[in-house]
Amino acid sequence: MAIVTTSKKACSVNPLKMSQPIGGSFAFMGLRGAMPLLHGPQGCASFGLTLFVRHFNEAVPMQTTAMSEVATVLGGHENLEQAILNIYNRAEPEIIGINSTGVTETNGDDVEAFIRLIRQKHPQLEKLPLVYVSTPDFKDAFQDGWGKTVARMIEVLVAPFDPARPRDASRVNVLPGCHLTPGDLDELRTIFEDFGLKPSFLPDLAGSLDGHIPDEFTPTTIGGIGVDEIATMGQVAWTIAIGAQMRRAAETMQVRTGAPFRLFERLCGLIPNDDFMAFLSQITGRSVPSKYRRQRGQLADAMLDAHFHIGGRKLAIGAEPDLLFDLSNSLHEMGAQVTAAVTTTNSPVLQRVRTENVLIGDLEDLEELARSRDCDLLMSHSHGRQAASRLNIPFFRVGFPMFDRVGAAHLTTVGYRGTRDLIFDIANLIITDRELNHGPTPDTWRSTNSDLQVVSPGLH
Amino acid sequence: MTSLPTTIQDVFNEPGCARNASKSRVERKNGCTKQLKPGGAAGGCAFDGAKVALQPFTDVAHLVHGPIACEGNSWDNRGSVSSGSDLWRRSFTTDMSETDIVFGGEKRLYRAVKEITEKYDPQAIFVYQTCVPAMIGDDIDMVCKAASAKFGKPVIPINSPGFVGSKNLGNKLAGEALLEHVIGTGEPDYTTPYDVNIIGEYNLSGELWQVKPLLDELGIRILSCISGDGKYREVAYSHRAKAAMMVCSRAMINVARKMRQRYGIPFFEGSFYGIEDTSDSLRQIARMLIESGAPAELMERTQALIAREETKAWAAIERFKPRFAGKRVVLITGGVKSWSMVAALQEAGLEIVGTSVKKSTKKDKERIKELMGQEAYMIEDMSPREIYKMLKDAKADIMLSGGKSQFVALKAAMPWLDINQERCHAYMGYVGILKLMEEIEKALYSPIWDQLRQGAPWDEFDRKPQGRTVAQMNAQAANPVRDPSRNGVRAISFSNQAEASERESAIAAHGPKLAEPNTPCTSSSGRCIACRDIPSDLQPPALQAAE
């Protein structure tokens, strides 16, 4: 049981957190032909856009209602109307996903009412789905925005269960948290398909941001799950949610369609994947394909090979709650000690992180904790690079954003295979660091006091 | 203290700005911020502009007063470089919460300044105003004044909430803040007749250092650079310079002009991109310093240095001529780019076939025609789709542009080079232009293009008139079940839908055996997927799984 505390500082230094609205926009990027629209000043969308482009190295669709000072005073109805019409006429989207920002929330724009008025005035929009989610900047964080947005998508887009039609037992709904990469989603897709299931991912980032070469340049998302497919998600047998942030969405789905759900808080590590395989086996009535039996063996062997290096490492990890929970527990299960843990927002899983306390804070907090507790491996998104270089300890990039390395979209940590690769990557990072920085010299053993010299963990 | 609207009006009324001067009185009143179309293009906001203009000051703590979005989503993304303090790379924000919005964020801001002072003791703190605190009426001017008095160090308010306008306006508002609070508040240890300011240069990728050795050799001292590798103290005494160079970005024209007005520092607009511009700028600096009282021999030394460097540079470019012969370039940049860069590219044998003239004046267009011939392909305002098509049709061999349009080129399997802010190479001065040539050559001759332009093997396959549509093929590829029309011939299916294992393909090829669902074809104790259909009446356990 970890004790969860919140930083009391007035000034956040080197933020770990990103804002809620762009987490919402991110979710819309997993829909086909979508245009995420931020209702706020143009900077909000511009910053988000830049962040996504640098992480994915892809053209990313994102728009703004370009609220000016005057518009803010008068309310955003006209700006929203113009934005929707402009996007409708220019980009021909299949759906527009709208997230509010701090400015429009402070102002108290009643966006749902605006949308009703806009629909009345412009009958051509009748068939265009408009999904609005309230996501002020001054509350919550990135993964909350994602979770709320997916829940809202289900409320608006999923058709209620039709009792006249039987549930399709070959289909499953998959509600992935925002900490899963396109690489993770592809891995999961393969697993489901190998069990003979047809998964509907909501949202499906692997369809739109996995890097591909389109034939035509389109201003909206390319690929992802279509609105037509989302509408039928109520007819499936099971919903599988991944990450505690998706509980809300899964419950919404259950209330709306009666489809039962199973929430997997983790999909990294041996035991969580055993549970996952067992569950799939149970709902399909099939045994686990031989491929995964082999992969499990490989993972077990990887654990044997890598525990020498990972065991005993003192980990400083900064990530959003679900990612923190998943990674820290997986590495704890490899024998590492989670010595410093910092996260962005509150979540029920934080208490179950295998460490003494979890701090809701920033990267300065993480850096200080890592320094005072003598951590020797830092994990966070790319912003942690400065802290790692000041601490002079190895740095493993994980999560979003990862803007200073290529291939961020394909980092895979789910499944037996993803876990295996993660373990190898981290072990190799540690080995490299040991070779470079911790080679024994005569001075390593030179002791000025007569006490027993404690050997640093780098020499294990 | 002037109010923000007054400052903005004042900035709009910039006599030093050629574009503004050419406007009618009515147009001028409307200011320069083109109201962005909602749902139109997304550019940066005023806060963004102010932050990027001042962020390179190295020993200043940049504190953003607002909710997490403004700073949390945008920090640590500039390629400026510092020769000293790295405080500028740290990010400070008040991360306002809902409670702060309700009760006002001024106390939190004050406490934040206190924390920074205690922990980091910077030379100065710049406080950036953003939309939400501006809306709820947080008075950052007063907080800064109080904090400054209390902690005995400069705490400077930068009034630039995002919704007042564009990124460019923000650049200028940042300049206004410097003029109002910083410039002229300090004195240098000594002055020389060779002191210059460089205004509107951000030392991206350390570009300034490609030129600084030349100035050093001439004995010219950069008294202050606003803001690349700048220090707070340098800006404070920058009013003692003898001349100023306004680097081509027009972000800070107001700073240069007002410093001329207030302190009599003459300035010129120049650029260090390209060989000719670099030489021109050096000559201009020398000329201005001499006019301000430096010895006349400076010009001779400058000319000698230019002659030496130019000879070297042109000789080095010679190497690229055969490599660039007949290669066509499309140039897509935001604003007024220095034409000497074009001249240098042409000198190396590249042909510029198109350039964007979105923000060019009539005079610029004349100049383009002069340089590129009457046939010059001027891109007024092309949509990405059109550019994509143009590149796909191979009307050019390489595109040079800013990061925003890179995917248009790359996805068309077209070499591309970043010549804007986010680039990671430095292209300044005589050294930089060579670097640019090298990069262009690397991009043009990369072996990847030939491979990427070849179609996938299945493109050919799908085109074969076998009476089956591609859609059918794909459906089959996605679902490798028995197709009676295949007569046991195994088609190769290329599909990214499912990683059909070899075993399954084998099963698919076993045609008749599929009819016997009891034949196991995996080594697992269950049966393989391809061998059984899920009975559609399989009702799932209707219980909700507990975790």
Automatic annotation (TrEMBL), chain A:
GO terms for biological process: protein-containing complex assembly. Keywords: Nitrogen fixation. The keyword Hydrolase does not apply. Pathway: Cofactor biosynthesis; Fe-Mo cofactor biosynthesis. Residues 19-430 form the Nitrogenase/oxidoreductase component domain. The keyword 4Fe-4S does not apply. GO terms for molecular function: nitrogenase activity. InterPro entries: ChlB/BchB/BchZ (IPR050152), Nase/OxRdtase_comp1 (IPR000510), Nase_comp1_CS (IPR000318), Nase_Mo-Fe_CF (IPR005975). Belongs to the NifD/NifK/NifE/NifN family. PANTHER family: LIGHT-INDEPENDENT PROTOCHLOROPHYLLIDE REDUCTASE SUBUNIT B (PTHR33712:SF7). This protein may play a role in the biosynthesis of the prosthetic group of nitrogenase (FeMo cofactor). This is Nitrogenase iron-molybdenum cofactor biosynthesis protein NifN. It comes from Bradyrhizobium sp. LLZ17.
From TrEMBL, chain B:
Belongs to the NifD/NifK/NifE/NifN family. Residues 45-444 form the Nitrogenase/oxidoreductase component domain. Residues 502-525 are annotated as: Disordered. Keywords: Nitrogen fixation. It holds the Pfam family Oxidored_nitro. The keyword Hydrolase does not apply. This is Nitrogenase iron-molybdenum cofactor biosynthesis protein NifE. Pathway: Cofactor biosynthesis; Fe-Mo cofactor biosynthesis. PROSITE patterns: NITROGENASE_1_1. GO terms for biological process: protein-containing complex assembly. InterPro entries: Nase/OxRdtase_comp1, Nase_comp1_CS, NifE, NifE-like. One of its GO terms (molecular function) is nitrogenase activity. NCBIfam families: nifE. This protein may play a role in the biosynthesis of the prosthetic group of nitrogenase (FeMo cofactor).
